[in-house]
Amino acid sequence: MEPTRLTGDRDAIGREHGRQHADKIRDSIRVYDRLFRDFVGSSWSEARGMAPRFLPAIERLFPDILDEVQGIADGAGTDFDDILTLNCRSEISLTQASGGCSAFSLNQGGQWLAQNWDWRADQQRNVVALEIALAGQAPLISVGEAGMVGKIGMNAHGLGVCLNAIRSQTCGDGLPIHFALRKILECPDFAAARRVVDEDRVASPAHFLIASHDGQATGFEVHPGTPGELPPQDGKVLHTNHLYAEATAACVNDFPRPDSPVRLSRLRQLLDRPIASEPGALFDLLSDHANAPSAICRHTNHELPEAERMETLFAVVMNLNERRLHLRLGKPCEAGEAMEVELELAG
């Protein structure tokens, strides 16, 4: 697997993203049409009608990104509202569903970020890695879904972010999750990233695990109000798909699936043992199958209804000191496609 390299202003980056991944973007729209119907009974056209409600917050807090959204639409031959809907899909209906992502930061021999991203298998084919060099900004790499402006990744300043979905019916003002993730990836340092979650706020609940090369790391349980914070314990922050910061749990109702605490407990158990500070050892941890089918490395559980079957679609390990991202597409326990990207140091 190779990253898609995008350069220029936001319009140029968007157009090239859309052009190179037009087929994947159109397929993503079909996938989310099915997902919307499965989760909340909404068609794609109905979802398109909901997305514009988030434009005022984006125009207020991150207006420049809308040029990129339009560029993606132009490059892919779709409408602006299609790309907006993809990027607001969490807020529109997918807070009703929770994936199975397991994430951690580790400050040992440098600052590491790692996670599995678990979702429906029919979106596997639409995973892309975007290496973006926006004019006047430090390069960044984002691993996620075609047509979306940002998700999991890092930048050349040595700042990175991971994501855990939270199932909740809360949705309010602030940046939609994927716009907030991209804004964080454009931040020069941890303090600037913190301002995105503290001041801009995020429209619907999620967990953002933010870390930087200088050893700062915090888990932010974001939502429209003040985020809950999870500081490192023994150099580690761990998270799955339920809220457990006291401040968040007191004001946001979440509806986690039973496997989330199981995976969190297993992560803690594995990271309490000695572990090598190198990508292979961290991928081995992400490949753990204890407590299957509620394992860190998720395989399809055919006992669940089809709409609720989640599996690991990619695993990522980031060394923020070296600005190096390692990706395994598919389940990390299997010998599938892999990628390594190193960004030139900035700042």
UniProtKB/TrEMBL annotation:
Q: Which GO terms describe its molecular function?
A: acyltransferase activity
For this UniProt record, the keywords arranged alphabetically read as follows: Acyltransferase, Transferase
| Signal peptide extent | none
Q: Which residues form the Peptidase C45 hydrolase domain?
A: 107-332
The record ties this protein, via Pfam families, to:
AAT
Keyword Acyltransferase attached: yes
**Which NCBIfam families is this protein grouped with?**
C45_proenzyme
Know the name of this protein? Isopenicillin-N N-acyltransferase like protein
